[in-house]
Amino acid sequence: MFERFTQAARAVVKGAFEYAERTGAAAVAEEHLLLALLDREDTRAAAALRELCPPERRPAVAAALDDARRRAGLSRADAEALEGLGIDVGAIVARVEEAHGPGALAGKRKGAGRWSGRRPFSREAKTVLEKSLRIALARKDREIGDEHMLLALTTTGGVVAEVLADHGVTYTSAEAALSAAAVAP
């Protein structure tokens, strides 16, 4: 599938690997794809994201992703559902971090600096890449671009889609911004 990726999409994947490495993650997750996508500057997806989520709002996106990572990747909807059952996720996170240190539920590997070889993609990141392909095919595009990755990230559900929606980036708004970026001179 990667042979169908544009240079921009390949750069996003490479950036996602770098984010995973820097954070000590055991796998490349969809949040790493989003962070790498936010780093892009000269693509249609970058133009759409600049319109929908300007650079001054990006620290809030990163903070929301960090907060979800502290909750072991639970979305707000997941936490609210558990709260309805009488389970206080915030209290559990606080107790685990008290016993095991800050970020204990963040999914970091022990010995993060000693990694040989490539990190695998998480199941969710694979889903984003597969949806990117499906979106490209549905649009009759010959290659998978970072714009397809952006659209796929908005449809996966879970933390990343929730964070994007909280910052005004939905499938509909991203599609409109991408269309506008395509016709802009």
UniProtKB/TrEMBL annotation:
Keywords: Hydrolase, Protease, Repeat. Residues 2-185 form the Clp R domain. PROSITE patterns: CLP_R. The keyword Hydrolase applies. InterPro entries: Clp_N_dom_sf (IPR036628), Clp_R_N (IPR004176). The keyword Protein transport does not apply. Gene3D superfamilies: Clp, N-terminal domain (1.10.1780.10). Pfam families: Clp_N. One of its GO terms (biological process) is proteolysis. GO terms for molecular function: peptidase activity. This is Clp protease N-terminal domain-containing protein.
